Amino acid sequence: MRSPRTPYLRVDVERLTANLARVANRATAAGVALRPHAKTHKSPEVARLQLDAGAVGLTVATIGEAEVFVDAGCPDVFVAFPLWVDSEAASRLRALAERAVVAIGVDSLTGAEQAARLLAGSGVEALVEVDCGHHRSGVRASDAGPVALAAARAGLVVRGVFTFPGHSYAPDALTSAAADESAALAEAAASLRSAGLEVRLLSGGSTPSLDASDLGLLTELRPGVYAFGDAQQWELGVSDPADIALTCRTTVVSHAGGRLVLDAGSKALGADRAPYATGWGRLPAYDDARVVLLSEHHAVVDLAGATLPPLGSVVDLVPNHVCAAVNLHDTLWARRSGSLEPWPIAARGRNS
Amino acid sequence: MRSPRTPYLRVDVERLTANLARVANRATAAGVALRPHAKTHKSPEVARLQLDAGAVGLTVATIGEAEVFVDAGCPDVFVAFPLWVDSEAASRLRALAERAVVAIGVDSLTGAEQAARLLAGSGVEALVEVDCGHHRSGVRASDAGPVALAAARAGLVVRGVFTFPGHSYAPDALTSAAADESAALAEAAASLRSAGLEVRLLSGGSTPSLDASDLGLLTELRPGVYAFGDAQQWELGVSDPADIALTCRTTVVSHAGGRLVLDAGSKALGADRAPYATGWGRLPAYDDARVVLLSEHHAVVDLAGATLPPLGSVVDLVPNHVCAAVNLHDTLWARRSGSLEPWPIAARGRNS
């Protein structure tokens, strides 16, 4: 097969499967279920590798993602999002529940009652989302019981509680975010039990906090980025650059100003730049290099004195946030034994 | 037609056509050619409106975009990018040049000679890119002559010089960036003439600097964002919010923490956040509101004390950078006389 045109995303399948096995083995050893977040890869091929490695099912962010992965044969999906369930959402979820085990998130009395009203009897279960410190969505842990009770009384089976310790995405926050995760899940579970409800699941996990998560308390982990790694994980000290399984292949198009200008910009990499990031991505071959300017089709790289590779040469760039980069492409190019195989990014753009 | 699921992009066609007419009329009055950058909309329908309003052709960023717009009937495209022309790029450009007027950017002796070697006799013309202060790609103005001469000697017709005053994207930089643009284009044109070359075109323009561009000197303008406007232009004082023609329609999914949580995140809006931005997008209905947290499928909005609209209601959000937002969707929903019509984003993801 002819090499794809740059910029394209290349996956090192050996590194990918090693990353999947490492986390799967840790979950298995601890007796904890692994439900990887498929928003990272949006790829049925990667999902299959995760399920083959022992994942109990997938986490997704939208009903559209759930549809793609159930179509691809995944038997169990959890939409980890406080969906507003209107009649169209309900009929899509009901259709999914005829083919797979399906759960959704709820984080308010109103949302839970609305979901229950339209989904009662469908088999779709609910988990109450708890805010453990990221301050995005989710109820306070002490409010989880009343929300769960409202859902249960309106006819929805409540599986348990979940949280996303997204505040782990900061230097030195990995351990404290995991502690917040345990505390919030424990309090939320107690709140459900006080309301007379059974708690079958305490679900958490984020890639940065994963090694610090309390696997004596949690019963399920939902990491996403761990499959590939990215420059954020590299700069947080979570991923060893030698384990990063996805790079954007780019061509050197200019040496303007004595810097390297690559043909990958925000439309190939995403524009994510966390406060702790040192640039817009990292170059594995040039540890001291930094992407100092990113526009839609240019990455301008200060090579820190290294000799500029010639115009027309191809350079690997690791995106800051791999989930964002993947969602910009239609294909992952999987490299295995020297050959490249196209893996469709089947759930790209499935935002609803 | 059933309303699309949120998050989706809605275009107000009346505002769009007014934005197109305003800039087209200004260019016509000044006797300057208008060649809008199609990377903003990636839509044949919008391109057609621009051409109907008097644009001489389109600017694009990649050969793939050029192919989409020539397929859609555009007779004249300029790839405003310092392409590295390998044999595959050359054969695609040659094929395009059989159907349309085609030009590309060059910004180095090596790149110009490489392009000329593979494109000589094809009809594809070149423009030398000049850096006027954005410090992305482009030669220094005084080096434009030698690069143009190298291209010309190797067999490429050189049309003139172009620049992108991208440093206009900063508060109070609009006028100074336009002055830099004129100075660099004038010096570059002089450099070409010193090398014995004719200069048919001095091309510039960015949406923020557009009103300040020297239309006595420039002979072509290439703005992109002006078609829709976005939160960046709003916050730079370039777009009146009442003229912004594209919004992301989002659903309120949570009131967690007393804030508004919308179902549009970076995968629907893009993650762009310039240093001067006050958040990740703006809400036309709530001037004081700010998007204080953005993740892939959530926008968390501080409504600054306003009453929270109820769960399930639909709210308009203006993306920070409209070009990035458009590239995440497959369809623009064009609203005209109360009805919604799907306009395919045909060049989405055409990064090469």
Question: Could you please describe the fold and organization of this structure?
Answer:
2 copies of one chain form a homodimer. Chain A has 352 residues and is an alpha/beta fold. Chain A has 2 domains: 13-228, Alanine racemase (TIM Barrel, Alpha-Beta Barrel); 232-344, Lyase, Ornithine Decarboxylase, Chain A, domain 1. Helix content of chain A is 30%, strand content 22%. Chain A has 10 helices and 16 strands. The first copy, chain A, has helices at residues 13-30, 44-52, 63-71, 87-97, 109-119, 144-153, 174-194, 231-236, 266-269, 322-326; strands at 8-12, 33-34, 58-60, 76-82, 101-106, 125-130, 157-163, 201-204, 220-221, 246-254, 260-262, 290-294, 299-302, 314-317, 331-336, 339-344. In chain A, strands 1, 10, 11, 12, 13, 14, 15 and 16 form an 8-stranded mixed β-sheet that branches. In chain A, strands 2-9-8-7-6-5-4-3 form an 8-stranded parallel β-sheet. In chain A, strand 3 (58-60), helix 3 and strand 4 (76-82) form a beta-alpha-beta unit. Chain A is elongated, with a radius of gyration of 21 Å. Chains A and B meet through helix 5, strand 10 and helix 9 of A and helix 5, strand 10 and helix 9 of B.
